[in-house]
From TrEMBL:
Signal peptide: none
Organism from which the protein derives: Streptacidiphilus jiangxiensis
Pfam family for this entry, one: PAS_4
All copies of domain GAF, residue ranges: 150-306, 334-480
Name this protein carries in UniProt: GAF domain-containing protein
Keyword rRNA processing belongs to the record: no
Length: 727
């Protein structure tokens, strides 16, 4: 007697195993593959209502669209031959013609047998990988954009490529980026490759406000604005006719915010038909808004770097002029010949004419006159003999009295009129030494040679140099200020408030801080109540170190929300470093950790890439180093990195430092080292104040070195604070 097929109870048990699982399951019986049972995931995937009418019907009737896609043939083969069939990332159209939607599955057809081994049907198991596939394509497109950003591609090119990538991932979408203008009150065209030119021209310069379409309103509210039907939404009242001309029916826009939460612009996605925001479009908006922020911030940083470089070159040229002039003046040992040489060197570099007056025996005396070669030389004698500088209301007398420069738009009278120039003003600067003003240098301006701020500053610098007989420190101070401003832009303005933790940080540049260092740290929020924490050290100093630091920080911030582990984030940073044209000079040591508050304290997952080891100070005074070394980034495409996970209990402290701390030296050249750092931490045992622990470290270093800093020093301290509620 033939053994019975699988019992109904057995089928129910099998279906029950998958009833609430995300795995799609269906039991098919007989050569015509009748539906004998399925779980909820199956009915949700195929898009049909679950009901008794489906059971017992052949698969070709339940899902006729599978026939022409060859899936019924595969079921026939599995039933006939008794061999399972497995496929990965297979696209399947589900639904009737005209309303079909494509999904992607990993699936298998497994023959079902009765107790005698006879094939009685096929079991269908599948996993919907549509979103994973879309996420992979999304990550691939974003990686290409990050590489463009790392290569310092023009912002317009990056934003245009971003819009095109979005439209490739979601073909029904039209995307655009608007940029905040210098006034902070309007939005300018950034990129919109698929929107009509007339539309882009019309919205270029549109205001920010509470009812300015999707983009202007999103910038005003600083939150995403979703308009499902432009034709009826009041936010679009002023732009409705324009949108209708452009064939736009729905729009959602997100503000683009910097890492310091400053508005940079907006990112918008349009549709040609009214519709609600989909989950896929939301994913695209989140990812590419962050990418746009990274690109715009990088552009701003690069523009600031270029402007700083231009200022530095101009300042360098000015400094060279001042040094050359002051050297030449100092070589003339006789007074007032040195001032006469000063006047000759100031013309025509600073103006067409220069005179110098000094106080001699209580009287004002003109000691130097210099004219440009094309001016009538007879005027030199007239200016030398002029006495108007002695008048009670003259600029020279006021400068001698106050020791302050004076700028006037009035043309001087008397002998100055003999120059044949259209004089538009003059500047008079003091000659001061040891706090005593003993003379004044006067320059005139003409219509074609204005006395701008640079010329006035140079005149003052030359006067100070000649008067004091010493080198100027003006260029030194301004370069230090420029370096400080650039370095400040690479560090957090303020540490954020992290749940369950207290943070403190310190950064001190090497020496006098004239150059930009490569030490940095960052703390930022991540999805799911996680926080990212990073500290690192870039090889080298100066502008290259600044751009590398910006690349590492912004890459970590951009990819961390998208990647599953700190190791993956470090690997993405490594890829960004290697993608630079000058990657052979972009070496970085790094510690990247992700933390989240848990019941027992703070859960930490950490990876270390060639950076000095972190130190963990437990509440009982025990000090350990919880992270393996790992390989520094920017060297190898496949760095060796190990993930370390641990928990910071309440009162535990995590301390991260750069090598400037460990390699600080005392006057004999001895290194501060890890042992002294551990001792400094142990001295703070029992302290749960992050700032006091930080002070213990920096005070110990200062006491050891005498306050001399040969290398940049960064310290980041995190103390775990147990939630009183026990959460």
């Amino acid at each position: 007697m033939t053994e019975p097929a699988e019992s109904a109870t057995g089928q129910d048990m099998l279906a029950g195993m998958f009833a609430h699982a995300p795995v799609i399951f269906a039991a098919l019986g007989g050569p015509d593959h009748r539906l004998e049972g399925a779980n909820a995931a199956f009915y949700e995937a195929v898009g049909v209502g679950r009901g008794p009418a489906m059971l017992g019907r052949p698969a070709a009737e339940v899902l006729p669209e599978l026939v022409h896609q060859g899936l019924v043939d595969l079921l026939d083969a599995a039933y006939r031959e008794g061999e399972p069939f497995v496929a990965h990332h297979t696209g399947v159209l589900l639904g009737p013609a005209g309303k079909a939607r494509q999904r992607f599955f990993d699936f298998s057809f497994e023959p079902r047998r009765d107790r005698t081994g006879r094939i009685v049907g096929v079991a269908f198991l599948a996993v919907d990988v549509t979103r994973q596939r879309a996420a992979h394509k999304l990550a691939s497109e974003q990686q290409a954009l990050l590489e463009q950003i790392a290569r310092d591609s023009p912002l317009a090119e990056v934003l245009d490529g971003m819009c095109r990538a979005i439209e490739k991932l979601s073909p029904r979408v039209l995307s655009s980026v608007l940029l905040l203008d210098e006034t902070g009150r309007r939005l300018r065209h950034g990129a919109a490759p698929s929107l009509p030119d007339f539309y882009n021209a019309a919205v270029d310069g549109s205001p920010i406000g509470p009812s300015e379409g999707s983009c202007g309103t999103a910038a005003y509210r600083r939150e995403m604005v979703v308009v499902s039907d432009i034709a009826t939404d009041p936010l679009w009242a002023a732009y409705r006719d324009l949108a209708q001309r452009a064939g736009l029916a729905a729009c959602w826009s997100s503000p683009i915010l910097s890492s310091s939460d400053e508005l940079l612009g907006t990112f918008a996605m349009y549709h040609r038909t009214p519709q609600e925001l989909s989950e896929d479009d939301l994913d695209l908006s989140i990812v590419f808004t962050r990418t746009a922020a990274l690109a715009i911030e990088r552009h701003h940083a690069e523009r600031a770097r270029r402007q700083a470089l231009e200022r530095e070159l101009a300042l360098s040229a000015d400094l060279a002029f001042v040094l050359e002039t002051s050297t030449a003046v100092s070589e003339e040992a006789h007074f007032p010949d040195n001032l006469r040489r000063l006047a000759r060197l100031a013309v025509p570099a600073l103006g067409p004419a220069c005179v110098i007056d000094v106080v001699d025996d209580g009287r004002i005396r003109r000691v130097a006159v210099a004219l440009a070669p094309d001016l009538p030389q007879r005027a030199e004698a007239l200016l030398a003999a002029e006495t108007s500088a002695r008048a009670e209301d003259s600029p020279v007398r006021r400068v001698l009295a106050t020791g302050a420069s004076e700028v006037s738009t009035a043309a001087p009278a008397g002998a100055w009129q003999e120059l044949g120039l259209r004089i538009t003003g003059q500047v008079c600067v003091p000659l001061t030494a040891r706090g005593h003003t003993f003379g004044a240098l006067t320059l005139v301006a003409t219509e074609d040679r204005m006395l701008d701020a640079r010329a006035i500053s140079l005149a003052e610098e030359l006067a100070r140099t000649a008067a004091a007989g010493a080198e100027t420190t003006r260029q030194h101070e301004q370069r230090a200020r420029l370096a400080h401003d650039l370095q400040a832009g690479l560090l957090l303005a303020a540490l954020p408030e992290m749940p369950g933790a207290q943070l403190a940080a310190s950064y001190r540049p090497a020496g006098e801080g004239l150059d930009i260092g490569g030490d940095f740290y960052d703390v930022f929020a991540l999805p799911g109540d996680w926080w990212g924490l990073v500290i690192g050290d870039v090889c080298g100093r100066g502008a290259h170190a600044a751009t590398t630091t910006a690349l590492v920080r912004h890459t970590a911030r951009a990819v961390a929300p998208l990647l599953p582990t700190p190791s993956a984030v470090a690997e993405s940073v490594n890829e960004a470093l290697l993608a630079r044209p000058d990657s052979g000079e972009s070496f970085v040591t790094l510690i990247y950790a992700e933390l989240r508050q848990v019941r027992d304290g703070l859960a930490v997952s950490m990876v270390r890439a060639g950076h000095p080891p972190p130190l963990l100070l437990r509440a009982d005074g025990t000090v350990t180093s919880p992270s393996p070394a790992g390989q520094l980034l920017g060297v190898s495409p496949d760095p060796e990195l190990e993930l370390e996970s641990f928990t910071l209990a309440g009162g535990d402290c995590l301390v991260l430092v750069t090598d400037g701390i460990l390699e600080a030296r005392d006057p004999t050249g001895t290194l501060f080292g890890e042992e002294r750092l551990v001792a400094a931490l142990r001295s703070a045992t029992g302290t749960t104040d992050a700032q006091r622990i930080l002070d213990a470290v920096t005070d110990a270093v200062d006491a050891f070195t005498g306050g001399v800093t040969d290398d940049d020093q960064a310290v980041l301290v995190l103390v775990s604070r147990q939630d009183p509620s026990g959460a």
